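ok here's the first one, seq then struct tokens
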Amino acid sequence: MLHLLIIFICFSVKLIYAEGVCGDGWDVFHDEYYDICYKYIADGMGDYQTVVTACKGELDSSLPTINSQTEQDFLNQMIVKYKIIENSSLAALKEFAAMVGTYFTTITMTYAINIIQVWLNITIWMVDGIWLDASIKNKHIVWTDRSSGEYENWMSGRPVNNDNCVEMLADEANRDQETERFIRNSRRLIDELKHNQNNQQAQIVQLEKSQVPIDFVYVQMPGQAEPKTLWPAYTWSDVTVTYAGQFFRAEGGGSLAFGKGVQADFAPRLASKQRKDGGDTWEYSLDMKPGVWTEWIYSGTAISGGTGIFNRYLVSSGEVRPLNQAIRIFKRIK
């Protein structure tokens, strides 16, 4: 069912230096020379002079003037933006708006589509007329602000007489066609939503399969869960034996480079000493055992006298090693 409603729109010419300067409830049109603020007011106020006075109270604005097809298109878009008013199912329309805005996190796509179907079946109100800031003289439009009257977009057979006020009307001949186009576009939206739903479901399936990629290696620390507990849908292989008994370090520092094999299994330390006294052949060798002092070894005579100097050596029984405990390593294979 189609209902008609007379509304009016106020506009104010401003130089716009920042977003939101028009204030809440205003729409901004970027003209070639100015930025213009428009405000839609839904409450009908009766005659022409009453709405002119009402606009003066809104930022000292006036009724709209239309000087180009671009501005006409902008007003048409405002009509489309504000004309859909839910009659008896306001709650359903509000629910639709909320659902479409948040369905990614709160509802299924199927439910959102059902809400749209409800929206299409509610009563639609459409704009019947919008007052303009102009008069008619000699069958031509004259704008109150004396702006150019070159642009005119009269309905067939209009204007008829001179008049002190002008109203922008919907094309009665094409009103039903426009309504059908609105419904058709809305149904196309449903098709797009359904298409998007299918794409999103495919993406979700892909994400579920690739949360952990194949060949990912998981290191299980003591007291932590095995990967098959964390990701039961995947198949894991225990590859710990490949790295059995190994410690790992960051690459660099003069040690063996990445991928070049296992570092030698010893640490440099003093392990033996050899001595040779002056003369020809007499030599003396001494092996050093970790944690045990060596025998005394003559190393020379003091400069101040004939007292001999002897040294002995001790090698620690352990090496400096990091604290360590066993880990297990798993690799996803499919």
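and now the second one, same deal
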Amino acid sequence: MMDFDDLDEELEQKGADLEALAVQNRRDREEEEKARAEAERLAKSVRMQAGLRVQNRMTGRTGEVVAAMDGTPANFKVRFDNGDVRTFPVAKFEAEDGRTLLEVNPEDGRTL
């Protein structure tokens, strides 16, 4: 004869296991979505480098990257099409084709 108490305990344990798996699956799905979003963001961006054509987001003025300033990732020199050379924060510019500019790695900034 079957012991229903044992069956109830077994069902409760399996239910708890399934609930734990569902929680883990949700976490995994969230991590995958974050990784996918980051990959899409990187695909729509470009790392700043010398010679890269850029444009000011506000004015539309275009030029090319000359150098990072003092190896800092947040500022760079741009030579505008009229020959004017100025220093700006990366956030004010985008690549000429509309991609977002990524800051230079500090190690790379010294050699840019």
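notes on #2: The CA atoms of residues 48 and 104 lie 6 Å apart. Residues 4-43 form the longest helix (40 residues).
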